[in-house]
Amino acid sequence: MEKLRIATAQFENRSGDKPYNLNMIDEIAGKAASEGAQAVAFHECSITGYTFARHLDREQLTDIAEFIPDGPSIKRLQEIAAKHGVAILAGLFEKDAEGNLFKAYVCVDKTGLLAKFRKLHPFINPYLTPGSEYCVFDLYGWKCGILICYDNNVVENVRATRLLGAEVLFMPHVTMCTPSTRPGAGFVDPALWHNRENDPTSLRLEFDGMKGRAWLMKWLPARAYDNGMYCVFSNPIGMDDDQLKNGCSMIVDPFGDVLAECRKLDDDFVVAALTREKLTQAGGYRYIRARRPDLYGSIIAQPHRPEQKVVWMDKK
Questions:
Q1: Quick one: which of 153, 145, 194 has its CA closest to 173?
Q2: What is the bridge-based pairing of β-strands 112-118 and 101-109?
Q3: Among candidates 162, 172, 179, 175, which has minimal Cα distance to 90?
Q4: pLDDT of 61-93, one tens digit each?
Q5: Which tens digit of pLDDT belongs to each residue from 36-53?
Q6: Rounded to 5 degrees, what angle do the CA atoms 7, 12, 14 make?
Q7: Fewest beta carbons less than 10 Å away: which of 43, 169, 174, 256?
Q8: CB 12 within 8 A of CB 49
Q9: Based on the number of CB atoms within 10 Å of its own CB, is 70 exposed (0-12), middle (13-18) or buried (19 or more)?
Q10: Residue 252: which residues within 8 A CB-CB, separation 6 or more?
Q11: What is the pLDDT of residues 116-172, one digit of tens each?
């Protein structure tokens, strides 16, 4: 059975500096390709930077956003993909002809745009419009889906994408190391990052504890396990605007096991081979076939007004 070799990456992006971030994508993609990767996945807004966008007004956000597929960043991604013979998945802010603004994530190869997804639950800037549809596309004969960051916290989104045929779910994030009502959550002191060469232990304790990886592992393997699918999680490391992020980019298989994970306190990538037999061997395959939508279809579809609150975005 054919395998799909996927790389997931982490790097410290620069806010609003597209040339720098695209050069980083180019550099990492080349290294991943040399290790046999067929596709390389980067984090949410890896092209533009993310957290700084909470400070932008509509005009400023429009200026940094691009048309897809005709904007310069997509053309640059296509060049990178052709240069290294891989597909590239990366994120940016998008604008359309009507002036709407979106959080987008794309898959590009040497031929151009293969897929585009708009975040369903954006919150970083009030001028962003939520996406209105799921995305499932073909990549080297595999069915793949995309959900961006918060989208993955709503379990119906993951299940819906799986039911639409996705065998692999790309999950670009900018997450962890922020306050919430969850015990143990909170920011990580940027000073620990800047002193990481002298004292990696203190930083690792913060990154791996309840502020970071320990929280992630409460839910990420469950998304893969419950749905019998591969999950490709990508997250930045280092400073994103004034917030420190902890990376932990990883690939989780349909059993909920971590196949590969970035563990450097630095820019990094890992490559894993995805095999088809796990898709039907895993319990999620059986559980999906055993579903009883006759019992709960009307419950799930009953009217509901979406409410989305992000604690660290609350104005004090």
A1: 153
A2: antiparallel
A3: 172
A4: 999 999 999 999 999 999 999 999 999 999 999
A5: 999 999 999 999 999 999
A6: 125
A7: 256
A8: no
A9: exposed
A10: 220, 221, 223, 224, 230, 231, 233, 258, 259
A11: 999 999 999 999 999 999 999 999 999 999 999 999 999 999 999 999 999 999 999
